[in-house]
Amino acid sequence: MERDEALALALLRGDPEARPTVRLYQWEPWAVSLGRHQDAETLDRNLLHRDGIDLVRRPTGGRAILHAEELTYCVVMYAGRRSILQVYNSISEALVCGLRLFGVEVTLQKSQPPFAEVYRQPSSIPCFTSSARYEIEWQGRKLVGSAQRRYADGEHDVVLQHGSILCGPAHRRLCDYVRVTDEGVRERIRKEMYEKTVDLAEISGGAVDVTRLAGCIRRGFEMFPMNHPEGTRIP
After folding, report:
1. Backbone dihedral angles phi then psi of residue 88, each to the nearest 5 degrees
2. Structural domain boundaries enclosing 68
3. 127 in catalytic set
4. Secondary structure class of 209 (helix, strand, coil)
5. Count of domains in the chain?
6. d(CA 178, CA 102)
7. Which strand (E) or helix (H) includes residue 45?
8. pLDDT at 72
9. 183 domain residue, yes or no
10. Within a domain: 232
């Protein structure tokens, strides 16, 4: 993720080799990424260390994600005159295109929860317990979690967006590492994770070919390009 931010800053500086980019990758070992402003003390570091799970902080916002059985995507692009939600929608449309090529009929969340209120709840610590507008769902359950950040220098706005495409159920283990004083809170988080999230293995009823998934996502961005205001296409 440091590399992702470096790509965004290089694009902002106008480095000759910099260009809008889509990256797709997985994690070894598994890791929890915290949102840029999220309190690290909400998770039990000792338990994470015991289980060989790293803890990192994203340059983007949002809430904690366990990068386990999933495919992480990163988009670095010029925002042009588009708002945060407009860019979010464009990226989500490209992801929807890719997921449909993979054989999954997904939809976009149309409503926006009151995050100031949601984030005061202990159950909001994991990213996947709530959906923002234009996040991707399957039959009302969240399949892709995303977070965005903008960098500006007065001339250009550059977007860095991260997201996690769930391929298996391991993301739900995040509730095991949440630091709580009331075990009832942990069980509520666990229940919400099961009720509100879905993964591609559950949808398809079998193991996910992540290489083919990555190819479909790439093709989705090729078919639904994000453009620089002057027309430079993400390669």
Report:
1. -55, -45
2. 2-223
3. yes
4. coil
5. 1
6. 33
7. helix 45-50
8. 98
9. yes
10. no
